[in-house]
Protein backbone atom coordinates (compact mmCIF):
# COMPACT_ATOMS: atom_id res chain seq x y z
CA UNK A 1 0.00 0.00 0.00
CA UNK A 2 1.31 3.45 -0.94
CA UNK A 3 0.85 6.45 1.33
CA UNK A 4 1.72 10.08 0.86
CA UNK A 5 2.75 12.65 3.46
CA UNK A 6 2.62 16.33 2.58
CA UNK A 7 4.71 18.66 4.71
CA UNK A 8 3.05 22.05 4.82
CA UNK A 9 4.28 23.61 8.04
CA UNK A 10 6.92 26.05 6.77
CA UNK A 11 6.57 29.82 6.75
CA UNK A 12 8.56 30.91 3.66
CA UNK A 13 9.90 34.20 5.03
CA UNK A 14 11.83 35.14 1.86
CA UNK A 15 8.53 35.74 0.07
CA UNK A 16 7.38 38.45 2.48
CA UNK A 17 4.99 40.29 2.26
CA UNK A 18 3.10 37.75 0.15
CA UNK A 19 4.03 34.80 2.34
CA UNK A 20 2.95 35.44 5.93
CA UNK A 21 2.67 33.41 9.11
CA UNK A 22 -1.08 33.10 8.53
CA UNK A 23 -0.82 32.60 4.79
CA UNK A 24 2.55 31.04 3.91
CA UNK A 25 4.13 30.41 0.53
CA UNK A 26 2.74 26.92 -0.05
CA UNK A 27 -0.84 28.24 -0.05
CA UNK A 28 -0.16 31.04 -2.58
CA UNK A 29 -1.28 30.59 -6.16
CA UNK A 30 1.27 30.10 -8.94
CA UNK A 31 -0.19 29.83 -12.44
CA UNK A 32 -3.62 28.56 -11.35
CA UNK A 33 -3.21 26.38 -8.25
CA UNK A 34 -1.31 26.88 -5.01
CA UNK A 35 1.91 24.93 -4.51
CA UNK A 36 0.09 22.94 -1.83
CA UNK A 37 -2.71 22.09 -4.28
CA UNK A 38 -0.20 21.04 -6.94
CA UNK A 39 1.44 18.79 -4.36
CA UNK A 40 -1.92 17.30 -3.40
CA UNK A 41 -2.73 16.57 -7.05
CA UNK A 42 0.68 14.89 -7.41
CA UNK A 43 -0.10 12.74 -4.36
CA UNK A 44 -3.44 11.75 -5.87
CA UNK A 45 -1.48 10.24 -8.78
CA UNK A 46 0.45 8.10 -6.29
CA UNK A 47 -2.19 6.82 -3.91
CA UNK A 48 -5.83 6.84 -2.78
CA UNK A 49 -7.22 10.07 -1.24
CA UNK A 50 -7.65 8.34 2.13
CA UNK A 51 -3.91 7.48 2.15
CA UNK A 52 -2.76 11.10 2.05
CA UNK A 53 -1.64 12.73 5.31
CA UNK A 54 -0.98 16.44 5.70
CA UNK A 55 1.28 17.65 8.51
CA UNK A 56 0.97 21.34 9.18
CA UNK A 57 0.79 24.02 11.80
CA UNK A 58 -2.55 24.28 13.63
CA UNK A 59 -2.97 27.80 12.19
CA UNK A 60 -3.45 26.31 8.73
CA UNK A 61 -6.12 23.70 9.32
CA UNK A 62 -8.81 25.52 7.37
CA UNK A 63 -6.53 26.62 4.56
CA UNK A 64 -5.66 22.95 4.03
CA UNK A 65 -9.30 21.82 4.11
CA UNK A 66 -10.50 24.61 1.83
CA UNK A 67 -7.75 24.21 -0.71
CA UNK A 68 -8.40 20.47 -0.95
CA UNK A 69 -12.15 20.91 -1.33
CA UNK A 70 -11.53 23.52 -4.05
CA UNK A 71 -9.92 20.68 -5.98
CA UNK A 72 -13.07 18.57 -5.56
CA UNK A 73 -11.63 16.13 -2.98
CA UNK A 74 -12.48 15.45 0.65
CA UNK A 75 -10.09 14.93 3.50
CA UNK A 76 -11.00 13.68 6.97
CA UNK A 77 -9.72 15.42 10.10
CA UNK A 78 -7.72 12.31 11.02
CA UNK A 79 -5.62 12.84 7.90
CA UNK A 80 -4.62 16.39 8.89
CA UNK A 81 -1.99 16.28 11.61
CA UNK A 82 -1.83 19.64 13.39
CA UNK A 83 1.42 20.41 15.15
CA UNK A 84 1.19 22.59 18.26
CA UNK A 85 4.50 24.14 17.14
CA UNK A 86 6.98 23.68 14.31
CA UNK A 87 9.72 21.14 15.15
CA UNK A 88 11.12 20.92 11.64
CA UNK A 89 10.67 17.97 9.30
CA UNK A 90 11.82 14.93 11.29
CA UNK A 91 9.18 15.09 14.06
CA UNK A 92 6.56 15.94 11.40
CA UNK A 93 7.48 12.92 9.27
CA UNK A 94 7.75 10.64 12.30
CA UNK A 95 4.27 11.60 13.45
CA UNK A 96 2.81 10.81 10.01
CA UNK A 97 4.68 7.49 9.85
CA UNK A 98 3.34 6.58 13.31
CA UNK A 99 -0.21 7.16 12.06
CA UNK A 100 0.40 5.24 8.85
CA UNK A 101 1.84 2.30 10.78
CA UNK A 102 -1.49 1.93 12.62
CA UNK A 103 -3.05 1.15 9.24
CA UNK A 104 -0.32 -0.81 7.56
CA UNK A 105 2.92 -2.27 8.88
CA UNK A 106 4.64 -2.44 5.54
CA UNK A 107 3.41 0.74 3.83
CA UNK A 108 5.55 2.61 1.28
CA UNK A 109 5.55 6.30 2.04
CA UNK A 110 6.24 9.28 -0.23
CA UNK A 111 7.10 12.49 1.61
CA UNK A 112 6.47 15.68 -0.33
CA UNK A 113 7.48 19.20 0.63
CA UNK A 114 4.78 21.62 -0.44
CA UNK A 115 6.98 24.51 -1.44
CA UNK A 116 8.14 23.35 -4.88
CA UNK A 117 7.25 23.34 -8.51
CA UNK A 118 7.88 20.05 -10.27
CA UNK A 119 7.58 19.07 -13.95
CA UNK A 120 4.70 16.86 -15.08
CA UNK A 121 6.75 13.76 -15.86
CA UNK A 122 8.07 13.57 -12.29
CA UNK A 123 5.35 11.08 -11.29
CA UNK A 124 6.74 8.34 -13.53
CA UNK A 125 10.28 8.86 -12.26
CA UNK A 126 9.17 8.88 -8.65
CA UNK A 127 7.30 5.61 -9.10
CA UNK A 128 10.33 3.95 -10.64
CA UNK A 129 12.06 4.21 -7.27
CA UNK A 130 9.52 2.00 -5.47
CA UNK A 131 11.56 -1.26 -5.72
CA UNK A 132 14.44 0.39 -3.83
CA UNK A 133 12.34 0.80 -0.68
CA UNK A 134 12.97 -2.81 0.45
CA UNK A 135 16.26 -1.69 1.95
CA UNK A 136 16.77 2.05 1.29
CA UNK A 137 15.46 5.48 2.13
CA UNK A 138 15.24 7.03 -1.33
CA UNK A 139 16.11 10.66 -2.03
CA UNK A 140 15.58 12.33 -5.40
CA UNK A 141 18.44 14.27 -6.96
CA UNK A 142 18.44 17.45 -9.02
CA UNK A 143 21.39 18.51 -11.16
CA UNK A 144 22.57 21.76 -9.55
CA UNK A 145 22.71 25.00 -11.55
CA UNK A 146 24.58 27.10 -8.97
CA UNK A 147 26.45 26.42 -5.69
CA UNK A 148 23.36 27.26 -3.60
CA UNK A 149 24.01 26.91 0.15
CA UNK A 150 20.37 26.37 1.13
CA UNK A 151 20.10 22.81 -0.13
CA UNK A 152 21.31 19.33 0.75
CA UNK A 153 24.05 17.84 -1.48
CA UNK A 154 24.21 14.19 -2.44
CA UNK A 155 27.22 12.28 -3.72
CA UNK A 156 26.18 9.30 -5.87
CA UNK A 157 28.08 6.04 -5.39
CA UNK A 158 27.61 2.56 -6.88
CA UNK A 159 24.75 1.83 -9.30
CA UNK A 160 21.50 0.32 -8.07
CA UNK A 161 18.70 -1.11 -10.23
CA UNK A 162 17.49 2.47 -10.52
CA UNK A 163 19.62 5.34 -9.30
CA UNK A 164 22.60 5.08 -6.99
CA UNK A 165 23.71 4.30 -3.48
CA UNK A 166 24.47 7.53 -1.62
CA UNK A 167 28.12 7.90 -0.69
CA UNK A 168 27.71 11.14 1.21
CA UNK A 169 24.84 13.44 2.15
CA UNK A 170 25.68 16.95 3.33
CA UNK A 171 22.98 19.39 4.35
CA UNK A 172 23.47 23.12 3.64
CA UNK A 173 27.25 23.26 3.11
CA UNK A 174 29.14 26.56 3.19
CA UNK A 175 29.71 28.40 -0.10
CA UNK A 176 33.17 26.98 -0.77
CA UNK A 177 32.12 23.39 -0.12
CA UNK A 178 28.99 23.86 -2.22
CA UNK A 179 31.12 24.98 -5.16
CA UNK A 180 33.39 21.97 -4.73
CA UNK A 181 30.35 19.65 -4.66
CA UNK A 182 28.91 21.16 -7.83
CA UNK A 183 32.25 20.65 -9.60
CA UNK A 184 32.39 17.05 -8.38
CA UNK A 185 28.92 16.23 -9.79
CA UNK A 186 26.91 15.99 -6.59
CA UNK A 187 23.12 16.33 -6.78
CA UNK A 188 20.88 18.72 -4.88
CA UNK A 189 18.44 17.01 -2.59
CA UNK A 190 14.97 17.76 -3.97
CA UNK A 191 13.34 17.35 -0.55
CA UNK A 192 11.10 14.48 -1.73
CA UNK A 193 11.63 11.14 0.02
CA UNK A 194 10.38 7.58 -0.35
CA UNK A 195 10.76 4.72 2.13
CA UNK A 196 9.00 1.79 3.74
CA UNK A 197 7.75 2.13 7.30
CA UNK A 198 10.15 -0.56 8.66
CA UNK A 199 13.26 0.94 7.03
CA UNK A 200 12.39 4.44 8.23
CA UNK A 201 11.76 3.21 11.78
CA UNK A 202 14.98 1.27 11.95
CA UNK A 203 17.09 4.24 10.75
CA UNK A 204 15.25 6.56 13.12
CA UNK A 205 15.91 4.22 16.05
CA UNK A 206 19.58 4.01 15.10
CA UNK A 207 20.28 7.72 14.71
CA UNK A 208 17.56 9.53 16.69
CA UNK A 209 16.65 7.06 19.44
CA UNK A 210 15.13 9.80 21.61
CA UNK A 211 12.61 10.78 18.96
CA UNK A 212 11.82 7.13 18.21
CA UNK A 213 11.15 6.31 21.85
CA UNK A 214 9.18 9.53 22.43
CA UNK A 215 6.71 8.47 19.76
CA UNK A 216 6.49 4.96 21.17
CA UNK A 217 5.77 6.16 24.68
CA UNK A 218 3.21 8.81 23.80
CA UNK A 219 4.82 11.98 22.68
CA UNK A 220 4.99 15.30 24.56
CA UNK A 221 5.29 17.57 21.54
CA UNK A 222 6.96 20.50 23.23
CA UNK A 223 9.78 18.29 24.50
CA UNK A 224 10.76 17.08 21.03
CA UNK A 225 13.97 18.45 19.55
CA UNK A 226 13.66 20.63 16.48
CA UNK A 227 15.54 18.84 13.71
CA UNK A 228 15.19 18.11 10.00
CA UNK A 229 15.29 14.64 8.46
CA UNK A 230 18.37 15.82 6.55
CA UNK A 231 20.48 16.53 9.64
CA UNK A 232 18.77 13.90 11.76
CA UNK A 233 18.96 10.83 9.50
CA UNK A 234 20.21 11.42 5.96
CA UNK A 235 23.65 12.71 6.98
CA UNK A 236 24.27 9.61 9.12
CA UNK A 237 22.52 6.62 7.59
CA UNK A 238 24.19 4.25 5.14
CA UNK A 239 20.85 3.01 3.80
CA UNK A 240 20.24 5.96 1.50
CA UNK A 241 19.74 5.85 -2.27
CA UNK A 242 19.38 8.67 -4.78
CA UNK A 243 17.30 8.61 -7.95
CA UNK A 244 18.02 11.57 -10.25
CA UNK A 245 14.99 13.51 -11.48
CA UNK A 246 15.21 14.83 -15.00
CA UNK A 247 12.08 16.98 -14.75
CA UNK A 248 12.13 20.68 -14.03
CA UNK A 249 12.30 21.59 -10.35
CA UNK A 250 12.15 24.91 -8.57
CA UNK A 251 11.99 25.55 -4.87
CA UNK A 252 10.39 28.98 -5.27
CA UNK A 253 12.61 30.14 -2.43
CA UNK A 254 12.57 33.84 -3.24
CA UNK A 255 11.00 36.29 -5.68
CA UNK A 256 13.82 35.90 -8.14
CA UNK A 257 13.11 32.17 -8.45
CA UNK A 258 9.46 33.08 -8.82
CA UNK A 259 10.33 35.57 -11.54
CA UNK A 260 12.33 32.92 -13.40
CA UNK A 261 9.36 30.56 -13.77
CA UNK A 262 6.69 33.20 -14.49
CA UNK A 263 5.41 34.14 -17.92
CA UNK A 264 7.03 37.34 -19.18
CA UNK A 265 6.04 40.04 -21.64
CA UNK A 266 8.22 41.41 -24.50
CA UNK A 267 10.17 43.56 -22.02
CA UNK A 268 10.79 40.55 -19.76
CA UNK A 269 8.50 41.93 -17.07
CA UNK A 270 6.11 39.67 -15.18
CA UNK A 271 2.84 40.60 -13.52
CA UNK A 272 0.15 43.08 -14.26
CA UNK A 273 1.63 46.53 -14.84
CA UNK A 274 2.22 49.18 -17.44
CA UNK A 275 5.92 49.48 -18.15
CA UNK A 276 7.74 52.10 -20.17
CA UNK A 277 11.47 51.65 -20.79
CA UNK A 278 11.45 49.07 -18.00
CA UNK A 279 12.85 45.55 -18.20
CA UNK A 280 13.23 42.47 -16.04
CA UNK A 281 10.79 43.46 -13.29
CA UNK A 282 8.58 41.30 -11.11
CA UNK A 283 5.42 43.15 -10.09
CA UNK A 284 2.47 41.97 -8.07
CA UNK A 285 -0.14 44.22 -6.52
CA UNK A 286 -3.46 43.46 -4.89
CA UNK A 287 -5.92 46.22 -5.76
CA UNK A 288 -3.76 49.01 -7.09
CA UNK A 289 -2.72 49.64 -10.63
CA UNK A 290 1.06 49.65 -11.08
CA UNK A 291 3.14 51.62 -13.57
CA UNK A 292 6.91 51.59 -14.07
CA UNK A 293 9.04 54.03 -15.98
CA UNK A 294 12.72 53.45 -16.50
CA UNK A 295 12.96 50.68 -13.87
CA UNK A 296 15.14 47.58 -14.32
CA UNK A 297 15.40 44.22 -12.54
CA UNK A 298 13.27 45.23 -9.59
CA UNK A 299 10.76 43.40 -7.44
CA UNK A 300 7.61 45.28 -6.45
CA UNK A 301 5.16 43.50 -4.18
CA UNK A 302 2.16 45.25 -2.71
CA UNK A 303 -0.34 43.86 -0.18
CA UNK A 304 -2.95 45.73 1.91
CA UNK A 305 -0.47 46.36 4.73
CA UNK A 306 2.98 46.26 3.17
CA UNK A 307 5.01 47.30 0.15
CA UNK A 308 8.28 45.68 -0.86
CA UNK A 309 10.69 47.21 -3.38
CA UNK A 310 13.85 45.19 -3.85
CA UNK A 311 16.60 44.66 -6.42
CA UNK A 312 16.01 41.30 -8.10
CA UNK A 313 19.54 40.06 -7.47
CA UNK A 314 19.09 40.78 -3.75
CA UNK A 315 15.84 38.84 -3.35
CA UNK A 316 17.48 36.38 -0.95
CA UNK A 317 17.86 39.20 1.61
CA UNK A 318 14.12 39.47 2.16
CA UNK A 319 14.47 36.67 4.72
CA UNK A 320 16.89 38.82 6.77
CA UNK A 321 14.47 41.71 6.63
CA UNK A 322 11.68 39.58 8.06
CA UNK A 323 13.93 38.31 10.86
CA UNK A 324 14.59 41.97 11.71
CA UNK A 325 10.89 42.86 11.63
CA UNK A 326 10.03 39.94 13.94
CA UNK A 327 12.59 41.12 16.50
CA UNK A 328 11.12 44.63 16.48
CA UNK A 329 7.55 43.42 17.16
N1 LIG B 1 4.67 20.11 9.11
C1 LIG B 1 5.83 20.76 9.07
N2 LIG B 1 6.41 21.13 10.25
N3 LIG B 1 6.39 21.04 7.88
C2 LIG B 1 7.55 21.70 7.88
C3 LIG B 1 8.20 22.11 9.06
C4 LIG B 1 7.58 21.81 10.31
O1 LIG B 1 8.05 22.13 11.41
N4 LIG B 1 9.34 22.75 8.71
C5 LIG B 1 9.40 22.73 7.36
N5 LIG B 1 8.31 22.10 6.86
C6 LIG B 1 7.98 21.85 5.45
C7 LIG B 1 8.11 23.10 4.59
O2 LIG B 1 6.83 23.72 4.43
C8 LIG B 1 8.61 22.53 3.29
O3 LIG B 1 7.51 22.10 2.49
C9 LIG B 1 9.42 21.29 3.69
O4 LIG B 1 8.93 20.92 4.98
C10 LIG B 1 10.94 21.51 3.72
O5 LIG B 1 11.24 22.47 4.71
P1 LIG B 1 12.15 23.74 4.44
O6 LIG B 1 12.24 24.52 5.70
O7 LIG B 1 11.68 24.46 3.22
O8 LIG B 1 13.56 23.04 4.18
P2 LIG B 1 14.78 23.62 3.35
O9 LIG B 1 14.30 24.18 2.06
O10 LIG B 1 15.58 24.50 4.23
O11 LIG B 1 15.67 22.29 3.05
C11 LIG B 1 15.07 21.09 2.60
O12 LIG B 1 14.65 21.21 1.25
C12 LIG B 1 15.70 21.44 0.27
C13 LIG B 1 15.07 21.51 -1.11
O13 LIG B 1 14.22 22.58 -1.20
C14 LIG B 1 16.14 20.00 2.74
O14 LIG B 1 15.52 18.74 2.55
C15 LIG B 1 17.29 20.20 1.75
O15 LIG B 1 18.19 19.10 1.82
C16 LIG B 1 16.73 20.31 0.34
O16 LIG B 1 17.78 20.52 -0.61
MG1 LIG C 1 12.45 24.87 1.30
Protein model, in words:
This protein is of the alpha/beta class. The chain contains 10 helices and 18 strands. The longest helix has 15 residues, at 89-103. It is globular. The N and C termini lie far apart (47 Å). The mean pLDDT is 93. The structure holds guanosine-5'-diphosphate-alpha-D-mannose (GDD) and magnesium ion. The site of guanosine-5'-diphosphate-alpha-D-mannose has 25 residues, from strand 4, helix 3 and strand 11.
Percent of residues in β-strands? 25-35%
Overall pLDDT confidence: 93
What molecules are bound to this protein?
guanosine-5'-diphosphate-alpha-D-mannose, magnesium ion
Helix content: 25-40%
> Strands of the biggest beta sheet: in what spatial order?
8-11-9-10-12
Specify the biggest β-sheet: 5 strands, mixed, barrel
Structural class by SSE content: alpha/beta
- The residue ranges in which pLDDT falls below 50 over 5 or more consecutive positions are none
Briefly characterize the structure.
The protein is an alpha/beta fold and 329 residues long.
What's the layout of helices and strands?
Layout: E1 2-7, E2 29-30, E3 33-34, H1 35-46, E4 52-57, H2 61-70, E5 80-83, H3 89-103, E6 108-113, E7 117-118, H4 122-127, E8 137-142, E9 152-159, E10 164-171, H5 175-184, E11 187-196, H6 197-207, H7 209-217, H8 229-234, E12 240-244, E13 249-250, H9 255-261, E14 274-276, E15 282-284, E16 291-293, E17 298-303, E18 306-311, H10 318-328
Parallel strand pairs: 1-4, 1-6, 4-5, 8-12, 14-16, 15-17
Antiparallel strand pairs: 2-3, 6-11, 7-13, 8-11, 9-10, 9-11, 10-12, 17-18
Helix pairs in contact: 6-7
Bound molecules: guanosine-5'-diphosphate-alpha-D-mannose and magnesium ion (MG).
Amino acid sequence: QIYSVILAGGIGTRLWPLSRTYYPKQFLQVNGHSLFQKTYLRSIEMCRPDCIFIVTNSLHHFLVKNQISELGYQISDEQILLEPSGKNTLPAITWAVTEIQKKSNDARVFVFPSDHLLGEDAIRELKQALPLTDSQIVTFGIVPSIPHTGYGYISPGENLQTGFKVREFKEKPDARTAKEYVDKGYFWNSGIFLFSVPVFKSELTKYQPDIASAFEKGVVWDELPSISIDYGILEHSDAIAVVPLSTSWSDLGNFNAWYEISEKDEQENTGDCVAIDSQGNFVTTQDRFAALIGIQNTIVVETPDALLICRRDMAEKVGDLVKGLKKKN
